[in-house]
Design a protein that fits this description.
- By secondary structure, the chain is an alpha+beta fold.
- It has three domains: 116 residues, Ribosomal protein L10, N-terminal RNA-binding domain (Alpha-Beta Plaits, 2-Layer Sandwich); 61 residues, Alpha-Beta Complex (Molybdopterin biosynthesis moea protein, domain 2), CATH 3.90.105; 63 residues, no CATH class.
- It is built from eleven helices and twelve strands.
- Strands 2-3-1-11-12 form a five-stranded antiparallel sheet, sandwiched between helices. A three-stranded antiparallel sheet has the order 6-8-7. Strands 4-10 form a two-stranded antiparallel sheet.
- A hairpin with a 2-residue loop joins strand 11 and strand 12.
- The longest helix has 30 residues.
- The protein is flat and about 100 Å long.
Amino acid sequence: MASKKQKDRKYQLAEELEVHFQNFSKMFLVDVDNVGSNQLHQIRIALRGKAVIYCGKNTQMRRVIREMEKTNPMLERVRNVLKLNLAIVFTNDNLAEIRDVIVNNKVAAPARAGQLAQCNVIVPAGNTGMEPTMTSFLQALNIPSKITKGSIEILSPVDLIMQGERVEASQAALLEKLDIRPFSYGLVVRHVYDDGAMYDPAVLDITEEVILASFAAGIKNIAAIGIETDSPSVASVPYSIVLAFKNLIAISAETEYTFPEFEAFMASASAAPAAPAAGGDAPAAASAPAAKKSSSSDDGGGGGAMFADEDY
């Protein structure tokens, strides 16, 4: 049986969770696996004044949320994803900035036997400081080594563990002896809730520039479709006007018909400085082949006339 103190603490935590849901409209659901209490305390310090981290039992949090769904049905989305070892980070600030603070706060950790590798682990070449008696230990892991000045030296970098593989006991022991901490742990954002909308944290990487670029590309596509299908639209009319003006200029340039805009265009074109040639010797080089071609054609014509005279 739970003591009266434990029950009071449970009710207190439930009330705190209700207050957080009432005061905040945005939240992160974060995975707290392998995160120690000291690291969690440091993250709370970094988020002080910007966000609140709430850690509790899933059953209790789901019970509180189920009661609050009577006034806010959208919270059902939060309740449905409260599984495994998740905590809630409440905030009203910019979600992208809070996410960066959460993700950047990580602590290096050693490899433990049986865990899945977060990344590729490479043992660098060089002196390890290990005693020569450990040579057989390295040979069992297929690591080339030699003894240099009374210690073991690894000859070349070795891919010890690949990402997603399970760490073996011998691999974990070697990394511990080499004082290599290949992994890092911190809060991992799994879901984002923003005033009733639940979405993937990758959405926060979409900036205003990306949205504007996508919108501009869509407008260009609409304009192209409108021009090709002769279906005018707000997006295609400016391009149609430009194309019509170009056609009028081309017609005026080939005929004697002129109009004020054409004359202004020709005046500005004639006033513009001529573009320089690609190289100073380009005209001479261009005239040389022309002269050579003319000379060869003259020679060919003379030879043909001579043979024609002989035939004649």
